[in-house]
Amino acid sequence: MSNACDASQECCPETAAREAGSEHCDMPEKLLCLADDAWREVVKEKIKQEIEKTSGAKLNALAKLVAEGNHRRWSYMIEGKQKCEEFKQQLKELLVSFSK
């Protein structure tokens, strides 16, 4: 089912308005597109509510696990960077000692 408010298309592409010699779109069509967008948003929110009701606890556990894993990943990256900086400093000191 396709209509003028297809989500992949603009309701009023600027090129179409220019080609028609008009600088504005049909207001009723724009309002219908707006209503379609609002309907999609409401349905999306309802779906979120249903998911939260049926899977909320599992999603909370998943979110916690992912957040903890992300924290560990960043900790390792920071630790690795610190070790890299230590290595660079040691290398610099060694190279400077060659010039003495």
Please characterize this protein's 3D structure:
- It contains 2 helices and no strands.
- The relative contact order is 0.05.
- The radius of gyration is 29 Å and the shape is elongated.
- The longest helix is centred in the middle third of the chain and has 72 residues, at 27-98.
- With 100 residues, the protein is an all-alpha fold.
- It has helices spanning 14-19, 27-98.
- The protein has one domain (14-98).
Summarize, please.
By secondary structure, this protein is mostly helical. The chain has two helices and no strands.
Instruction: Report the strand count.
Output: 0
Count of alpha and pi helical runs: 2
Q: What is the ordering of alpha helices and beta strands?
A: HH
Structural class: mainly alpha
Q: How much helicity do the residues have?
A: over 70%
User: Which parts are unreliable, with pLDDT below 50 for 5 consecutive residues or more?
Assistant: none
Our count of domains comes out at 1
Distance between the termini: 80 Å
Instruction: Output mean pLDDT.
Output: 83
Oligomer: single chain
Name its key features:
100 residues
Helices, strands, pairings?
Elements: H1 14-19, H2 27-98
